[in-house]
Amino acid sequence: MKARTEVLLFAGFIAVFAAAPAVAPLVQLDISIVSEVLVTAIAVMSVNLLLGYTGLPAFGNAAYFGLGAYGAALSVKYLGVHFIEAVLIGMVSAFLGGLILAPFLLRRRGIYFGLLSIAFGQVFYFIAYRATDVTGGEDGMNIVRPYLGLPAAHVTLNEQSFYYLALVVFVVALFAFRGVVRSPFGRTLIAIRQNEARVRFLGLNTDRFIFVALLISATMAGVSGALFALLINFAYPLELDWHQSGYFVLSMILGGAGTVWGSLVGAFIYVIGKDIISTITPLWQIFLGALFVACVLGFPRGILGTISLLGRRRGTPSGTDVSAALESQAPTGASRGV
Amino acid sequence: MASETILLDASHVSKSFGGLRAVDDVSMQVREGTIHALIGPNGAGKTTFFNAVSGYALPESGRVTFKGEDVTRTVNWKRIAMGMGRTFQTPSVFPDLTVDENVRLGVRAHAKQAFLLRTPQGAAAQAVDARVDELLGFVKLTAQRDRPVSELAHGSQRLVEIAMSLSTDPVLVLLDEPMAGLAEAETDRIMGVIRDLRTRLGLTVLFVEHNMRVVLSLAESITVLDRGKMLAEGTPAEIAGNEAVRSAYLGTEVLEHV
Fold first, then answer.
1. Where are the alpha helices (DSSP H) in B55-140?
2. Of A152, A199, A298, B138, whose CB neighbour count within 10 A is largest?
């Protein structure tokens, strides 16, 4: 993407989203739904880093999302921490979760990585589900949104100020994400997706790159989960469930795997679509599924990936054909512990 | 330039796939500064042996030493740091990236810049630029540097891969069927580059090849495999005159119309 296009895009994004609290009521949209879009987009980015850029089927990122959510909710409920502390605790919980799971995951590739990710996610799901005394089990746990904490110790966030906070966190996450994927490190992740054997035969230990990518991804998902729990003042086991992981993957593919802005587009369609359609019919997943099928068959690079493909004059398009990304899982010696 | 120093020493290497013994107790040595060919009919175990030597897939038994060090169980990316480079039968490149970007990736990897969160500036960047220019000049692809590799002819893609394998400053280059699927003119072009690897860069080359014209004109030593076993070893003249090689190998040559 050209620098000028990107500046314009970013300016447009800020203009639209800064005005959202004023505009949303006009279209009968609750501002907290728009907050949910921004918060979800961070989790979608976390999946995008692993699946869209590195080519690893991150089918279990709800584990980190849920760890963030429960990390925040439990610390608010039992430790009485403030908002900012709760988000940081959620983030660190997810990071530690990633640190524990990464050694098991980082040598797996393709479907083995995907299945193992799901399995680990389900372990956390059942812990949250069973530990009724602490987490409220299936009923989930209510929390009261705490004071913001330093620097404004006694400010409680209403829906509008929460929204602006989420916008700031999202922008920070977006720039961090963009910085990572455009750095030499990010380029190496893309190279691993395209041809891991070649990267190893350039003398790079690809496992080490995947380890770092996993930790970044887990941390981002944790921030998202923590904000989500504080947004709805509630934490429940389904946040850790593999369905939740699936929604992140779906949103990423819809928006455009391997594109910086695709995660926001995908999260927007998923969250707003769910909100609108579920007021009409409880079968909203059918529509989501149909959209997904149309996307994979018609524009596998997702919305932004397709736009950039159509708009390119020369050079290489951004975005990843997800089906191709998943197919290119040739053995590399890595999966055999070589 | 050829010395008596053994650079690569594989002894009693074996590897099976299920019941098939793809490489059966093969021993061979590559002397420093030579061009050494590994030939044999399809299914002789050449690529499997190559994979064992380069660490792509480890052997079940046997021993591989490189520069006098035992590397039998060494992970593949560490062998690269020790000075091995390799190419694959199907050019293993990044098709969406340009020629320049492909080679640059290798140079950056070798300059330990692959992990950075910021692109290096100044002297570090200039050193990378200079090395990329040098490698592209070596394989004579400077004119095509800004084209995506997928747009290049097959032979040029091979050259991109050779340039990438050189980006890590190897002393031994392993080339897996560098001429497969190429027209005569392209074959000659790559033959020239392989000769340059030895004469201009002083590297040692071990290559797998089917094309006997290429093998006999390039190689100083030839090892022949057949059905996983070593059949013969010697100079081109010795191999061309070897009866066992003729019956096992040259028969299939005719079938393949090479």
1. 76-82, 99-110, 123-138
2. A199
Is B88 in CB contact (< 8 Å) with chain A?
A: yes
Domain membership flag for residue B88: no
Within an 8 Å CB–CB cutoff, is residue B150 touching chain A?
no
Q: What is the span of the domain harbouring residue B105?
A: 94-167
Structure tokens at B129: 């630029």
- Is B76–A338 a contact, with Cβ atoms under 8 angstroms apart? yes
- One domain for residues B77 and B177: yes
The complex's ipTM? 0.88
Contacts of B92 in chain A (CB under 8 A): 195, 197-198, 201
Count of domains for chain B: 2
- Would you call B92 and A199 a contact, using CB atoms and an 8 Å cutoff? no
Map A243-258 to HEC letters: HHHHHHHHHHHHHCCC
Phi, psi torsion values for A118, nearest 5 degrees:
-60, -45
Q: Is B2's Cβ below 8 Å from some Cβ in A?
A: no
Can you give the pLDDT of all 338 residues of chain A as single tens digits?
Answer: 678 888 998 999 999 999 999 988 888 889 999 999 999 999 999 999 999 999 999 999 999 999 999 999 999 999 989 999 999 999 999 999 999 999 999 989 999 999 999 999 999 999 989 888 888 888 889 888 888 887 666 778 889 999 999 999 999 999 999 999 999 999 899 999 989 999 999 999 999 999 999 999 999 999 999 999 999 999 999 888 899 999 999 999 999 999 999 999 999 999 999 998 888 888 888 888 888 888 888 888 888 888 887 776 444 556 676 655 554 443 333 333 33
Look at residues B144, B167, B190 and tell me which one is the last residue of a structural domain. Answer: B167
